Amino acid sequence: MRLMIFIISICLSFVSVAARADTYKLQPGDEVEIWVAQDERMNRDAVVSPDGNLSLPLVGQIQAQDQTVDQLEATLTEKLAGFFKGELNLSVMLKPGPQHMPMVYVVGDVDAPGAFPYRPTMTVLHAVTVAGGLYRTPMEARDQDRAVVVEGQIDQSRKNIAELTVRIARINSELAGQEQVILPDDALPELSDAEKVTLLNREKQVLDAHIAEFQAQKRVQQQLNDFGVSGTDAIRRQIESVKNRVALAKERLAATASLVSKGLSHKSAQLELEAEVGELNEQGDQLQSELSALESTSVNERSRIDTYFTTRQSSLLAELHESERQLEAARNGLVEAERVMSIYRNTEMAERRGITAGFTVIRTHDGKVTEAPAEETTLLQPGDLVRVTYQQGGQRSAALADGTQPSGN
């Protein structure tokens, strides 16, 4: 249907051009169609050259500029008549071009002022539309772009508030030794259940990882306690046994030395006992070193684990305080962004209430120029000029509001 209307409009435009052809004077760039019934080789489309001439076989260059189509047809008939027998049947038709189409003109507060092809039943609104619509000032453009940025800040602030609220719930659960993230029922009412579940699952994964690490450290601590007690006790028992053996060996050595001094025993027996005492002393020293190393290792590992537990608690408290600070900042940012956005909305509404577009149609008819206010539905005529201006207060003239034409028809 739209295609049919467009074709009809084009045809009507061509009819309008044809109706003007009897008075239109040819200009350089115009194209005419020449048809000769007696010789189809003479049929052609010819363009008026920049110097105003047409070039045709048999007649050569002829002046076409400032002639009407009828005058050019008569000139060609006269010049070609001698080349054909009988009455020459020749016709010339102006081929419509953009320069021949009826135009309307749009100026003022539109995006692309200029001249545009006229179409039957064309209204002021149609003309403004083909001129790109009403012009948006740079200040309005900046305001609208800024509003888009502020809307993004509002969305980001709301997202941050939701994430921080669930994170704080996870930290409190972790500090309380709980294995689930507990979120109050009235928290985050603006979120759907699915969105809450997504955030809770994310923090639950963090909580599970922290719990697993905590339990692993607890197992290490218990193993240290168990091994430390049993290990040190065993070494101490060995040390005590070696001490007893050293004491017995020394008693035997003293007795043997007395016998050797009296000549009742060999010197070699005394030397063997002295070597045995030395070996036992070395065993005792080695066991004492092992005991010291084990006790030092246990102390260091216990200190590390104690530091982990203390640091973990401090880290959780620090994370809690930082998250609470960020949550407060996000809430303040949301309040400020919503305040700014409300200003833009109120300003936009005020501008819409206070500023409207006014239209004026300027028409030339029979050498007279008339100017009258118009409405969007006002019908235009070929050659009309539409002036668009913003006006304050929404006051628009009632003239032409019913679609009638300006005076001068």
Automatic annotation (TrEMBL):
Residues 154-181, 232-340 form a coiled coil. Keywords: Coiled coil, Signal. The keyword Transmembrane helix does not apply. InterPro entries: HH_AprE-like, Poly_export, Poly_export_N, Soluble_ligand-bd. Pfam families: HH_AprE (PF25994), Poly_export (PF02563), SLBB (PF10531). Residues 20-85 form the Polysaccharide export protein N-terminal domain. Residues 103-134 form the Soluble ligand binding domain. One of its GO terms (molecular function) is polysaccharide transmembrane transporter activity. Residues 1-21 form the signal peptide. Residues 152-338 form the AprE-like long alpha-helical hairpin domain. The keyword Ion transport does not apply. PANTHER family: POLYSACCHARIDE EXPORT PROTEIN GFCE-RELATED. This is Polysaccharide export protein. It comes from Aureimonas frigidaquae. The lineage of its organism: Bacteria, Pseudomonadati, Pseudomonadota, Alphaproteobacteria, Hyphomicrobiales.
